[in-house]
Design brief:
By secondary structure, the protein is mainly α. It has a domain of 221 residues. The chain is 74% helix and 3% strand. It has 14 helices and three strands. The chain has a three-stranded antiparallel beta sheet with strand order 1-2-3. A hairpin with a 2-residue loop joins strand 2 and strand 3. This is Probable peptidoglycan glycosyltransferase FtsW. Belongs to the SEDS family. FtsW subfamily. It is found in: Cell inner membrane; Cell membrane. GO terms for molecular function: lipid-linked peptidoglycan transporter activity; peptidoglycan glycosyltransferase activity. It is a multi-pass membrane protein.
C-alpha cells in the first residue's frame, strides 16, 4: 500500500509541479550604461554650453534645457522601439533604405544651410539631421541583405558588389551636403560587416584599398578638407588660423591632467574652443574631469560595444542571422564613431564633425542612438525569450517522461491484481 501511495505522489508531482522560472527581462547592464552616458552628457553639455548660451540667448541654461528635452524624447522613442518585435525590422528594412534615400534627397532640395552645409530638415519647430536616421536605416537594410544573399556575398563578386552600389548612392547624396564624416562611418561599418559575414579576404582588402583611395581623393579635391588635414598634421603651424580649434582642444586636454580642474572650471569653454558642447565636448570633459573622466567614458562605451558583439554572436549561434548582423553593425558603428570623435578632439584624426554617441549635444543624434540601443535590447530580449521557451519545452518533455515512468509500476500492479485467482 505504501508503495502504491508513493507512486501516486510521484505521478502527481510529475504532472502538476511547475518549475519556478521567472520571465526574461531586458538587459539591465545595457540600460544602466546607456543612462550613465546620457547623464555624463547632460552634465558636460550643461557645463560646456553655459558661456555661449548666455551670450547668444541671455540664458546660460538654454542648451542644457534643450538637451534635457532631447533626452526625454530619446527615452520615449527608445521605450516605443523596444516594444517592436525584430520581425518588424526584418520585413521593413528594404523600405527603410528607400526612406533613407528619400531623406537625403529631401535635405538637398528643401534643407536648411548652416555654415556652408545643408544637412538639416526643418519641420515646424523640429529640426532633423537626415544623415542620422539614414545610417540606422542603411545598416538595417545591409543586415537584411546579408541574410537574403548570404551565399552570393561569400561566394561570388556580384553579391559582394551589390551592397556597395547602394552605399555609393548614399555616399554621393551625403557628399553633396557635404558630410564626409558620415560617409566614412558608413564605409567602415559596411566593411566590418562584410568581413564578419565571411567575404573573401581579397575582396575585403580590395574594398579597403578603394575606400582609402576614395577618401584621399575627396580630401585632395576639396580645399577646406585639405586644410583640415594639413592643420591636423601640424596645428601649431597656424594656431590662430586653420589650426585654431585643434590647438584649443589640445590645451583643454593638457590642462586636464589626471583628475581635471574640477567640474565647471574649464577655461576653454569660455568661447576659446568653438563647438565646445557638440563635436568637442570630450575636450571639455578632459579638462574638467581629467584622464580619469575620459577613461570612464571610454570604458562605458567599450562595454556597450563588446556587449553588442556578444549579442551578435549569440544571435548567429541561435540561427537568427538578421539580428546577429544588425547587432554587429551597431557595435562597429558605435565604436568607430566614438573613435573618430575622440580622435579628432585629441588630434589623432582630422576633424569630421561627428557626435559622441549618447553624450554630445544634438537631438537627432541622441534620439537615433537611443533607438539603436533599444534595438540592441530587443534583440537580446528575444534571444532570452527563445531560450526560456526552449527550456520550457525540454521540461515539458522531461515531465511527460516522468509521468510515463511513474505510470509503469501502477500498470504493473494492475496487471498483477487482475492475474490473482478468485478466492471463491
Amino acid at each position: 500500500m505504501n508503495a502504491v501511495t508513493s507512486q501516486l505522489a510521484g505521478l502527481f508531482a510529475a504532472r502538476h509541479d511547475k518549475p519556478n522560472t521567472s520571465a526574461p527581462a531586458f538587459d539591465g547592464g545595457i540600460v544602466l550604461v546607456a543612462f550613465a552616458l546620457m547623464a555624463i552628457g547632460l552634465i558636460i553639455v550643461t557645463s560646456a554650453s553655459m558661456p555661449v548660451a548666455d551670450r547668444l540667448h541671455d540664458n546660460p541654461f538654454y542648451f542644457s534645457i534643450r538637451h534635457g528635452i532631447y533626452l526625454i524624447a530619446a527615452i520615449i522613442a527608445a521605450m516605443i522601439t523596444v516594444q517592436l518585435p525584430m520581425q518588424f525590422w526584418r520585413v521593413t528594412n528594404p523600405y527603410m533604405l528607400l526612406a533613407a534615400i528619400g531623406l537625403l534627397v529631401a535635405v538637398l532640395l528643401i534643407g536648411r544651410n548652416v555654415n556652408g552645409s545643408t544637412r538639416w530638415l526643418v519641420v515646424g519647430p523640429i529640426t532633423v539631421q537626415a544623415a542620422e536616421p539614414a545610417k540606422l536605416f542603411f545598416f538595417c537594410y545591409l543586415a537584411g541583405y546579408m541574410v537574403r544573399r548570404y551565399d552570393e556575398v561569400t561566394e561570388n563578386l556580384k553579391g559582394f558588389i551589390k551592397p556597395l552600389v547602394v552605399f555609393f548612392i548614399l555616399a554621393l547624396l551625403l557628399l553633396a551636403q557635404p558630410d564626409l564624416g558620415t560617409v566614412v562611418v558608413m564605409l567602415a561599418t559596411t566593411m566590418g560587416l562584410l568581413f564578419l559575414a565571411g567575404a573573401k579576404l581579397w575582396q575585403f582588402f580590395a574594398l579597403l584599398f578603394a575606400g582609402v583611395l576614395a577618401v584621399v581623393a575627396l580630401i585632395v579635391d576639396s580645399e577646406y578638407r585639405l586644410a583640415r588635414v594639413t592643420s591636423f598634421w601640424d596645428p601649431w603651424a597656424d594656431p590662430f588660423g586653420s589650426g585654431y580649434q585643434l590647438t584649443q582642444s589640445l590645451m583643454a586636454y593638457g590642462r586636464g591632467n589626471w583628475f581635471g580642474q574640477g567640474l565647471g572650471n574649464s577655461l576653454q569653454k569660455l568661447e576659446f574652443l568653438p563647438e565646445a558642447h557638440t563635436d568637442f565636448v570630450m575636450a571639455i570633459l578632459a579638462e574638467e574631469l581629467g584622464f580619469t573622466g575620459v577613461m570612464v567614458v571610454l570604458l562605458l562605451m567599450l562595454w556597450l560595444v563588446i556587449r553588442a558583439l556578444q549579442i551578435g554572436n549569440q544571435a548567429l549561434a541561435s540561427e537568427r542571422a538578421f539580428e546577429g548582423f544588425l547587432a554587429y553593425a551597431i557595435g562597429i558603428w558605435f565604436s568607430f564613431q566614438t573613435a573618430v570623435n575622440i580622435g579628432a578632439s585629441a588630434g589623432i584624426l582630422p576633424t569630421k564633425g561627428l557626435t559622441l554617441p549618447l553624450v554630445s549635444y544634438g537631438g537627432s543624434s541622441l534620439i537615433i542612438m537611443s533607438v539603436t540601443v533599444a534595438v540592441l535590447l530587443r534583440i537580446d530580449f528575444e534571444l532570452r525569450v527563445a531560450g526560456v521557451q526552449a527550456l520550457d519545452k525540454g521540461r515539458k518533455r522531461e515531465g511527460k517522461a516522468k509521468v510515463k515512468a511513474a505510470m509503469k509500476p501502477l500498470q504493473a500492479n494492475d496487471q498483477d491484481l487482475s492475474q490473482e485467482p478468485d478466492d471463491e
